[in-house]
Amino acid sequence: MVSLELLDRCRRREPGAFEELVERTHTQVYTLARRLVGDRRDAEDVAQEAYLRVFRSLGGFREEARFETWLYRIVTNAAMTFLSRRGRFGELLAEPEDAEPPDGGGGREPDEVVERDELKRALATLSPGMRTVVVLKDVYGLSCQEIADEMHLTEGAVKVRLHRARKRLKEAIYGTEQPVRDEV
Amino acid sequence: MTCQTARALLPEYAGGDLPGAGDLEVHLAACSNCSSELARYREVAQAVAALRLDLDTPSELFVTRLLSQLPAHRIRDDLRRIAQDHPRAQVAAVSLGGAALGAAAIALLWWRAARRTLGAAVHPAT
After folding, report:
1. ipTM of this predicted structure
2. Residue span of the structural domain in which A135 resides
């Protein structure tokens, strides 16, 4: 996505280098921002704030191999700041409730391909906190500790949300599993 | 391991977050229901990971607006705007630049002359 050479040019503030970095990364950055805050305009504000932070702190960034993760963490942090300014941060911290998940897709075969729209509908049924955790971990590859740092949660709380989110998604797509009868 | 214990571990196992799950693997090898359940989790995990390639596009002006907010661009754009709005400012900027250059040249000549004088005082010719 971004070469070491480009990062180096950005650090030296070479004319046109940061513009190139923005050109190469802005759709990914905007998409993540959109997944975290929802609204298109809000996502643009979050992405803009994230790039300003990248511009200011790129000089001190040395782990080139982890550039994408670093970039996604900055976007997440900017989104969390945005949500807390809007009084919506509490939605993310709310304990995931144990309500019955929507029961969908009963009778599907286990190896049947999950359609993208079907998955997006299932994601929309998750609480904001669960959705954020599963998106950051399973789509963008952040570790539970990194997510915990950005969301001001403990690593354990992130793992609980992740477990429930994955279970809910599976149930929203394949239907609720029957109570197990121990066989082995 | 019981099915109930195995089911509780499947979301993490399917997500690759459960290294060294030997007991679970033994159970899965013997239990078709739990291995079907694992296949469902894996299908979902694969679909979720694929969302990374599902990109949204911001509005057309997003990049232009973003770049104009960067500090270096902001200073450059502000200067350009001032120059366009106030043609006299261009003349003033050029005059100021010329004056600064002239002052620097005079200071350099003065400094070199002062050094030469000081050198002559410290090491007088014999």
Report:
1. 0.81
2. 89-177
